[in-house]
């Protein structure tokens, strides 16, 4: 909002300056005075698309053995909650395993799984999900 006011103020000052030059009969070009806004002010910030990466510290574990899931987020605020999901019977189920992202967008989460076999897992935050990764529980 402030940058829009600043742009408007600069444009008005430029137009008034051009009008005063025209009224005084000066031979100076008014176009450069009207175009004083910097390109950074004129451009709008493009929002970064949110994304999450996830990697398990192991590919297989014994039942209820602790392992870590680590990753990075982009486009999410620092302190955003990321939650582990497991695919169960063709549905994604949120597990009681979550953490908040750090200032740099990274996270680390300790996990224990008991469902034996190949587990499809992903990390989610809101509508943003990581690619699926797998951990086999023996």
Please characterize this protein's 3D structure.
Mean pLDDT is 80; it is low at 6-31. The chain is elongated. The protein has helices spanning 2-24, 31-34, 39-42, and strands spanning 51-52, 55-56, 60-61, 66-74, 81-88, 91-100, 106-112, 117-125, 128-129, 133-137. Strands 3, 5, 6, 8, 9 and 10 form a 6-stranded mixed sheet that branches. Strands 1, 2, 4 and 7 form a 4-stranded antiparallel sheet that branches. The protein is built from 3 helices and 10 strands; from the N terminus they run αααββββββββββ. By secondary structure, the protein is α+β, with helices and mostly antiparallel strands. The chain has 2 domains: 2-42; 51-137, Macroglobulin (MG2) domain (Immunoglobulin-like, Sandwich).
Show unreliable segments.
Answer: 6-31
Number of domain modules: 2
CATH C-level name of the largest domain:
Mainly Beta
Give the beta-strand count: 10
Strand content: 35-45%
Mean pLDDT: 80
Q: Please name the fourth-level CATH homologous superfamily of the largest domain.
A: Macroglobulin (MG2) domain
Number of helices: 3
What does the overall shape look like? elongated
Q: How helical, in percent, are the residues?
A: 10-25%
**CATH domain topology of the largest domain:** Immunoglobulin-like
What's the helix-strand series?
Answer: HHHEEEEEEEEEE
First and last CA, distance: 57 Å
Main beta-sheet annotation:
6 strands, mixed
Give the helix/strand class.
Answer: alpha+beta
Radius of gyration (Å): 27 Å
Task: Give the CATH architecture of the largest domain.
Answer: Sandwich
Keywords: Signal
Signal peptide: 1-29
